[in-house]
Amino acid sequence: MAEEGAGKIANAAGAGGPASPMKKGIPGADLVTDPKKRKKTLWACLACMGCCAVPFIIGLVLGIAVITSLCQKYDTYKRWAWLKEPIKIAASAAAGVAGTVVGGPVGGGAAAVSTYAALTVADVKLLKDNETFFKKTCKGSSSGISAVNYVAGNGSSGTIAVNDSGRVKPEDLRAYLEKRISGSKLNGYMPSDGARYGVDGSAASWAQFMTRLVGVESGYNTNDVSEPWAFEGGSRGLFQLSFNDALGYGLNGGKPFSAEQLADPVQNADIAVTIMERLVLGSGRIRQGGGRDYWGPIRDGRI
Predict the structure, then answer these.
(1) Bridge partners of 225?
(2) Which of 3-12, 133-142, 186-195, 222-231 is the least confident region?
(3) CB 267 within 8 A of CB 153
(4) How far apart are CA 18 and CA 90, in angstroms?
(5) Rounded distance, CA 152 to CA 74, Å?
(6) What is the largest CA-CA distance in the chain?
(7) Residues 6+ apart with CB under 8 A from 248
(8) Is the confidence at residue 159, as pLDDT, over 50?
(9) Residue 263 and residue 172: Cα distance in Å, rounded?
(10) pLDDT tens string 48-88
(11) More confident residue, 35 or 101
(12) pLDDT of residue 76
């Protein structure tokens, strides 16, 4: 009997071997045996995946755009959050009411208020209520830079005191700039559009003008960092200088400036005077040299 059974199995194998499991009626069997159906199914799966991926990609791009916009707003908010009543000032400026920044006209005056007023009251509330989130999310902006009380550098024109929040007093900065400019080629130079900016060629008028510029650029914050998306390391310090300005203007021994150098008020001011001197004397004008070629507030009329 055992031999007979073995013979039957052998005969079955010889007749075609064990029956294939891919018989009609088994789900998916034809995908293995039919190349056309397999190809068609593959394309259907890819199309389905594409339909799912497109909304995800669109959502991701829109999300990045929204976060980038909010980070830019947060950067502006952090610059002016030191105002005593930022929401009130933003509201009055948005309504067209003239305002004055803490510290008087040298602090930026109506121009600085206008800069802050680019944020709506709702923006300010959103940014303030969710500050922890924006600090973590907006890397490289002002929010990510801790307020360090840097010791002022030893400039030939003296020092500039920095408070615990990293800010300098406008009058201290103006006094330093006047001494620094008195030994530069700006002293006695009257650009063709100087009257427009209150510059009569004297060191005092140049110092007053450049102090106003700092009010709009950084709000007198030595730790201010903005535009990380535009420059390597962003624009930094009082005059919003960049690391690679050292390369562009042949300064610092041809090596990029460090974050510590640009956060130091004396070094930042000294560099700014050198850049202003080269640009203005090269063009004969403040707007063309210092504005179009470097400082945005001059170019777009915020100062």
Answers:
(1) 236
(2) 3-12
(3) yes
(4) 84
(5) 27
(6) 124
(7) none
(8) yes
(9) 16
(10) 776 777 777 888 888 888 887 887 777 666 654 444 344 44
(11) 35
(12) 62
Radius of gyration of the chain (CA): 33
Is the C-alpha dihedral spanning 223, 229, 233, 239 positive or negative?
Answer: negative
* Strand, coil or helix: 236: strand
Distance CA 285, CA 193 (A): 6
Residues 141-171 as b or e (16 or more Cβ within 10 Å = b): bbbbbeeeebebbebebeebebeeebbbebe
Q: How far apart are the first and last CA of the chain?
A: 110
Are 196 and 289 contained in the same domain? yes
In a shared domain, residues 89 and 159:
no
Residues 157 and 278 in one domain: yes
Domain count, the chain: 2
Cβ neighbors of 175 (< 8 A, separation 6 or more) are: 158, 207
Sequence-distant (≥ 6) Cβ neighbours of residue 270 within 8 angstroms? 155, 180
What is the SS3 assignment for 52? Answer: helix
Q: Which residue has the higher pLDDT, 208 or 158?
A: 208
Structure tokens at 127: 């940014």
User: What is the Cβ-side half-sphere exposure of residue 29, based on CA atoms within 13 angstroms?
Assistant: 8
- Judge whether 42 lies within some domain: no
Please, are residues 106 and 113 in contact by the beta-carbon 8 Å criterion? no
Angle at 47 (CA atoms; ends 44, 53), nearest 5 degrees: 145
- Contact between 187 and 202 under an 8 Å Cβ cutoff? The reply is yes
